[in-house]
Amino acid sequence: MTIEITHTRREGTLIEGTSRGDGSAEILRLREYGRTQRQPFRWSRNLDCWYLPHSRDHATYTPSLELLAQRLRDAGFEVTLTVDNADRRSFSEAEEEREEKAEGRADRFGGYAASAAQSSEAAWKKSHDISERFAFGQPILIGHHSEGRARRDHARMDDAMRKSIGESDRAAHWTGRAQAAANYQQFRKDPGRTLRRLDKLRADLRAVEKWQRGESAKGFSRNPADPELEIERQELTEEIAHWEKVIKDAEAEGFKVWSRADFTRGDFVLYRGTWYEVLRVNPKSVTIPHIHNGTGKRIVRATGNQHDDWTWTAPYDDVSGRKSADEMQQPPQAPASEAQEPAEQSPAVEEPVPVVKPTAAAAPAAGANWLDGMALVLIASKGSSRSRKRRALWAMTRREAQAVCGDPRTSGRSYMLTWTDRPGTEGADWEWVPDNGSHAPVLNELGITPRREWTAAPQAPAA
User: Fold this and answer.
1) How many CB atoms neighbour CB 99 within 10 A?
2) Kind of pairing, strands 299-300 and 274-277?
3) Is residue 78 classed as helix, strand or coil in its secondary structure?
4) Residue ranges under compositional bias (Basic and acidic residues) (predicted)?
5) Rounded CA separation 227/83 (Å)
6) Residues 217, 229: contact at Cβ < 8 Å?
7) Reduced to 3 states, what is the DSSP secondary structure of residue 399?
8) Phi, then psi, of 60 in degrees rounded to 5
9) Which of 63, 69, 38, 71 is nearest to 52 (CA)?
10) Cα(first)–Cα(last) distance of the chain, in Å?
11) Is residue 385 over pLDDT 70?
12) DSSP for 199-252?
């Protein structure tokens, strides 16, 4: 049977005519093909043939395919090789297909993430249900008839929890992949990134046009009669037109494309969240004080900085706003009730960012004893569900609750006592549980008589 090797820009490099076990797979899986000469061919169930990854929309490296054809012939196969680099699709068609595939990946990866999350939750619930047998720290009774079952339960708990953790990690992985795929179009059409891409494409187009004229570009020359140059020129022209339309659409939605004409020396430019005074206006950027001067400041002027001799360049595609020197002198005018102004019209703010010292929250007034307020003592089990109602043992003063919960005798291997003065609503957020008397010696030693009723009280004394 004849093996057909074909390459077009539209479909990429495909190999048809092979069959399972005929010996061709060992040759195709060698990492010696493609433009980098380090790629293997892969089998596609959708195409029902072998294909070379990342070969679409590119000219092939013909010597690589000729090497593959020769190897297959040496192995006893009849091989035909067809290369047509002129058969291509437009850039808009290729980009549209890439966006559709990204949407499909987002849906597929989202399903993987949901399945893994569901599996993780089921495994965790299984482990938690088994652990209820040991909620109060029941040890394994050596020699007792329950020893075997207890050890098996521990092993099942461990297996289930490890599975839960593994599935949770898998869910996080696929969630990230789904998010990345969903953001593909937004990432590709980001205006700042698109402007930088256009600069590179225009430089590439100028180089191709020089080569067509027989001139040197990028440090070397190419044959002006090479038909590949005309194909590259057409591709670059289409791609530039596509991304220029993206920028026009962004401008219609309010995006500002900054240029040299928008700035003069002495203006202020908003660069990565900080206003810098413009020292010099360049064709593709503005020169500003070094960004190290912007640490802890919102406005950086030309003088009076720690590093006045250092400068930085802010490219226009990374600029967010502009204000004149007179506008920067105006006092702030932004009432809290009004919507925030766009970046170009943001009010001036004094250079140092105010540092607010932390203060104690809900501190009691002078003369009031906060520790005499009421608190609820709760019992918490290791691995208990957050959605489960909290279990209350006693009500007592905060001072007594601190003493009880701080005693090492009130905590075990699988549980501990904690307290809160804001338990929420009885029945909805927490519930009373029976007191088995195991902590009575601690309560007696500390001289504490707990109560089994709760009355909500003010959280802080009145000022």
Assistant:
1) 14
2) parallel
3) strand
4) 99-108
5) 14
6) no
7) helix
8) -80, 160
9) 38
10) 94
11) no
12) HHHHHHHHHHHHHHTT--BTTB---TT-HHHHHHHHHHHHHHHHHHHHHHHHHH
**Amino acid making up residue 284:** K
Q: Point out which residues pair with 79 in neighbouring strands.
A: 3
With contact defined as beta carbons under 8 Å apart, do 418 and 378 qualify? yes
What sign does the dihedral 258-259-262-265 (CA atoms) show? positive
Q: What is the pLDDT of residues 75-88, one digit of tens each?
A: 999 999 999 999 99
Residues 236-242: contacts with CB under 8 Å, at least 24 apart? 236/201, 236/204, 236/205, 236/208, 237/205, 238/90, 238/91, 238/92, 239/91, 239/201, 240/198, 240/201, 240/202, 240/205, 242/91, 242/92, 242/95
Here the tokens at position 74 are 């040496």
Identify the weakest region by mean pLDDT among 173-187, 203-217, 338-352.
338-352
Identify the CA nearest to 448 among candidates 392, 391, 407, 390: 407
Q: Pairing relation of β-strands 390-397 and 430-432? A: parallel
Contact 69, 6 (CB under 8 A): no
Quote the tokens at residue 168: 């949770």
- Name the more confident of 171 and 141: 171
Q: Is 314 left (phi over 0), alpha (psi -120 to 50) or beta?
A: beta
Q: What is the mean pLDDT of residues 397-415?
A: 81
CA–centroid distance for 278 within its chain? 34
Residues 167 and 127: beta-carbon distance below 8 Å: no
CA distance 55 to 8: 9
